[in-house]
Specification:
- The chain is mostly helical.
- It is 77% helix and 0% strand.
- The longest helix is centred in the last third of the chain and has 26 residues.
- The model has no long low-confidence stretch (mean pLDDT 93).
């Protein structure tokens, strides 16, 4: 039963959020942050994300039962009751807020609450079933770990943190839309207007290219604002360049009206996770082994 409750929290999504939280703490500290602070932030952040994901499963249990991709979730199979899931989600949210408030700081706790509300109310309840821009604006909740990590160390939110927030914001559509292309029929069957459901793939691919360019250019803006050194700059250029190659490849295939087995949208989806990991590893390592760029320091 414990494993079923854990499944409600979507651990793989939580792992992705932590990829951004820890490196930002290194950057905010200008080196290695206090280990207890890192642990406390990760525990609170994981509980917060688990709360949001659990409440998402509770709200979306009707469409999860129809979609093939989500048909094995605990609320669909009946291994956990809706009341049990709702209670679990609320308790996680309360505990995460209290934990961050006591062991980190009030700003991080407040940002965590905003993240939960943004995902549960903003995305799941208001946007997901109503607009094709759902993942664009709803995805902002997934950017909050960047601000939480920064505020945990500094007690404030800086321009550098905001730039990394925007990197994740621009990253979310080209990360999620390829997945939506792959599972287009699933979303169409439950009338969720993901962009690939309501627009031709060529339109979706064009939007992916635009957001990818915005993401890469924003990541490079950090080099000037922070400023960063060679490690981050090389990571951003190399991983971002490959992301753009993959995005343009998808767009070219879509313009040629290629079938899905040739289009292979999941190729970009999987690489997008690698991109985020490489970029934020660069964020973490740069202040530790800082190699200054000429003319910027």
């Amino acid at each position: 039963m414990a494993g079923q409750y854990l499944a409600l929290t979507k651990p793989r999504i939580i792992e992705l959020l932590l990829i951004t939280t820890i490196p930002v703490m290194f950057l905010a500290e200008g080196g290695v942050p206090d280990l207890w602070l890192v642990v406390a932030t990760l525990v609170g952040g994981s509980l917060s994300a688990g709360s949001a994901n659990t409440l998402n499963c509770y709200i979306d249990r009707d469409i999860d039962a129809v979609m093939h991709r989500t048909s094995k979730r605990p609320l669909v199979t009946g291994t956990i009751s809706p009341a049990g899931a709702l209670t679990f989600g609320i308790v996680l949210g309360v505990v995460s807020t209290l934990w961050l408030g006591f062991f980190v700081n009030s700003l991080s706790a407040g940002l965590s609450v905003l993240a939960i509300l943004g995902y549960v109310v903003g995305y799941t309840l208001l946007l997901k079933r109503r607009t094709k821009q759902n993942i664009v604006w709803g995805g902002a909740a997934g950017c909050m770990p960047v601000l939480i990590g920064w505020s945990a160390v500094t007690g404030t939110v800086s321009w550098s943190a905001f730039i990394l927030f925007m990197v994740v914001f621009f990253w979310t559509p080209p990360h999620y839309w390829p997945l939506s292309m792959r599972f287009r029929r699933d979303y169409a069957s439950v009338h969720v207007p993901m962009l690939p459901v309501v627009e031709r793939f060529v339109v979706v691919a064009r939007q992916i290219v635009l957001y990818s360019w915005a993401m890469v250019l924003t990541s490079l803006a950090l080099v000037v604002v922070q400023p960063m050194g060679w490690i981050y700059t090389v990571a951003a250029l190399a991983s971002g360049g490959l992301f753009l190659v993959e995005a343009h490849r998808l767009s070219a295939k879509a313009r040629a009206d290629a079938p899905e087995k040739v289009l292979r949208p999941m190729r970009l989806f999987h690489y997008s996770i690698t991109y985020l990991t490489v970029l934020f590893v660069g964020v973490a390592l740069d202040p530790i082994w800082h190699l200054a760029l000429p003319g910027l320091h």
